[in-house]
Amino acid sequence: MKSKEEYLSLPYTRVVQERNDDTGHYFYGKILELDGCQSTGETVAELYENLNEALDGYIEVKLENGYSIPEPKDIEEYSGKFNLRLPKSLHRRLAIEASQEGVSLNQYALYKLSQA
Fold first, then answer.
1. Residue 95 is part of which domain span?
2. What is the DSSP letter of 17?
3. Are 46 and 83 in a shared domain?
């Protein structure tokens, strides 16, 4: 098992989103590989500080309790392809929408996934 410092030195993926909602303007961030490791900040700099603190605490608690900690995976481990089965009605709808947009079904599906 790695030490806390070794885990903290790994290149985890940080996802940052700027948000405006009924609570105001702020930045939200999460560590993609670590479910539940997230934080917020009024600025990007504050978010990164808070997110690093959340990461430190997350790893510390997992190690103290003997839980496994996912490590980041190298981008080269992914082919960029996966197969997906879906209902015929959804396939039809997406194909029609892609045609109306003048793009391939693959391009349209990628666009829709990126909006999630």
1. 79-114
2. E
3. no
pLDDT at 102: 93
Shared domain check, 54 and 21: yes
C-alpha 86/C-alpha 95 separation (Å) is 12
Query: Does residue 77 have a pLDDT over 90?
Result: no
Identify the CA nearest to 8 among candidates 44, 47, 34, 42.
34
Q: What's the pLDDT band for 80 if we cut at 50, 70, 90?
A: confident
Query: What span, in angstroms and rounded, lies between the C-alpha atoms of 16 and 47?
Result: 8
Residue 65 corresponds to which tokens in the numbers above? 């309790």
75 or 87: whose pLDDT is higher? 87
39/30 Cα distance (integer angstroms): 6
Nearby residues of 50 by Cβ (< 8 Å), 6 or more positions away:
29, 39, 40, 41
